[in-house]
Structures are given as structure tokens and as C-alpha cells.
Amino acid sequence: MSDFFEELKRRHQLAAANAYPATSAVSDFANNLINWLFPEHTGQVMADPVLLEQYGRQLEIQLELLLQPMQRQLPDTAGAISQSFMGRVPVIYDELTKDAEAILQGDPAATCLYEVIRAYPGFYAIAFYRVAHALHELHIPLLPRMITELAHARTGIDIHPGAVIAPWCCIDHGTGVVIGETTVIGQHVKLYQGVTLGALSIEKSMALSKRHPTIEDHVVIYAGATILGGETIIGHHSVIGGNVWLIRSVEPFSRIYYKAENKFSESNHE
Ligand SMILES: CC(=O)OC[C@H](N)C(=O)O
After folding, report:
1. CATH code for 1-156?
2. What distance in angstroms lies between residue 26's CA and the mean position of ligand 1's atoms?
3. SUPFAM superfamilies given for it (predicted)?
4. CB 15 within 8 A of CB 22
């Protein structure tokens, strides 16, 4: 048994050396930031412009404090990275405003923007993804993945922070959506639940190559479709039907549907 406790001691020492922030601190930062941009997220409103500005500065400090223990793994000082990140926040805001509008326009069941921001899993997931993606672009390790996993746990939508997703992204329902690390998605793309944008080969040696598909502008992908491969391009204005399995490119304006053989027959036993 003492060998076992030695092993645990070694593991705890290694984990301490990594010095990543607690998951709760990362969650607080991401939620505070999203709530600052979109008070509809929780309903906590800050009407005073002075407080709004001060809060922006507080968020920068909050991020700097998260990053400080990881300093050795960062390409620049924690302070400089936090400042660069905050400089990107207006772009995140602009893109998320467009995403919320796309969800409202794309879902007949959505009644208003407030509802989309407060209650739609598609908005929740894309909001956490856009924050994580900005941190990923600043070469911050692990933190971006922790942030997208907060949304994954809550919504069932798994978006890798490395994916590149243009604005006006509408993920409706969303449960079971998987968007891999090297996926590229154009503007005005609509995805339904259970869509996988995945890798054709999961060889470890493929780690640095483009493994996931490119989805051009104005594509709709219905529930349960699986689109795989880094060379697979779905041409703009295409529609991919439910449950389609696709490992090749399709031209713009394609219509691809799954045609199931009807293997079931009805019988009427007395
Ligand atoms: C989404 C997906 O295909 O993932 C497979 C593997 N994690 C990879 O990134 O290649």
C-alpha cells in the first residue's frame, strides 16, 4: 500500500507543478465575461456606464490572475495576453450578436433575442466557444478546452476551441453536435442535433494536419448527419439531410439525402 501512496504523492506533486487554475475560477471568468456582454445570459444587469467600464478592467485582471500561475507555458506575460484578449472582446461581441440573430431567424419557435440568449443551448455553446477560440488563438494551453467543456457539459454540444466558425452560426437544439479541432464553418450555417463534423482517420500522427471538414456559407445540415475528413468540402448553399454519412466533397447547391431501405414490415398477429 505504501507504494500506492508514493504513486499518489508523485501524481499530486506533478499536478501542483502544472499550476492550472481551478475549474470554478475558469467558469467564473467565462460566465462573468459573457454576462458583461449579454446581461440576458443570467439577468444580472449593470445599467451604469461607469460600472460597465470598470467591470471590463476587472475582467482583464481576473484573466491575468488565472494566467499568472501558468506563466512558464505562455508566449508572453500574463498581463500582455490579458490585454490582447480584452482587445478582441468587441469582435466576440459582434459575432455573438450575429449568432443570436441567426438563431432567432432560423428557429420558428424562438420568440425574441432575450429568449435565445437566456435559454438556447446553441447560443450558450457558441458563446463559450467564441471566448475559448480567442484564448486558443493567443496560444494559451488547456484553458480554452476547459471553457468549451463547460458548455459541452451543460448543452451536450462539443466544439473544439481550435475550430474556425464564422458568424451567423445557428445550432438548433444541438444535443450531440461534435465540431472537431480543424473544422472550418462559413457564415449563415445551420446545424441540427447530432451532427458530427469529424475526422476520417484518428491516427495520432495526423495531429497537426487538417482532419475535419470545411462547410461553406449558407449550408444546412440536418440531425444526425456525419461529415468526415479534412479534404471534405461542403459547397455553399448545400443541404445535407438527416443521418447522411458523407466522406467526400459536394458541389455548391447540392442536396444530399439519406435513403433508407425499408427493412421493417408491419405484421398483424391475432
Ligand atoms: C471530432 C473528431 O473527429 O474527433 C476525432 C479526434 N478527436 C480528432 O480530433 O481527430
Report:
1. 1.10.3130.10
2. 24
3. Trimeric LpxA-like enzymes
4. no
Q: How far apart, in whole angstroms, are the C-alpha atoms of residue 149 and residue 55?
A: 25
Angle at 151 between CA 119 and CA 175, to 5 degrees: 70
Q: Which ligand 1 atom is nearest residue 183's CA? A: 1
pLDDT tens by residue, 198-232: 999 878 888 889 999 999 999 999 999 999 999 99
Mean pLDDT of 245-268: 84
Ligand 1 atom with the smallest distance to the CA of 211 is: 10
Interface pTM (ipTM) of the complex?
A: 0.95
pLDDT tens, residue by residue, 9-41: 999 988 887 778 999 999 999 999 999 999 999
CATH number of 176-270: 2.160.10.10
Ligand 1 in contact with 162 (CB < 6 A)? no
Assign 3-class secondary structure to 239-267.
Answer: EECCCCEECCCECCCCEECCCCCCCCCCC
Q: Which residue's alpha carbon is nearest to atom 3 within ligand 1?
A: 198
Kindly give the distance from the C-alpha atom of residue 160 to the centroid of ligand 1, in angstroms, as a whole number: 9
The pTM score is 0.93
Task: Report the nearest atom of ligand 1 relative to the CA of 201.
Answer: 10
Kindly state if the Cβ of 163 falls inside 6 Å of ligand 1. Answer: no
Decide whether any atom of ligand 1 lies within 6 Å of the 122 Cβ. Answer: no
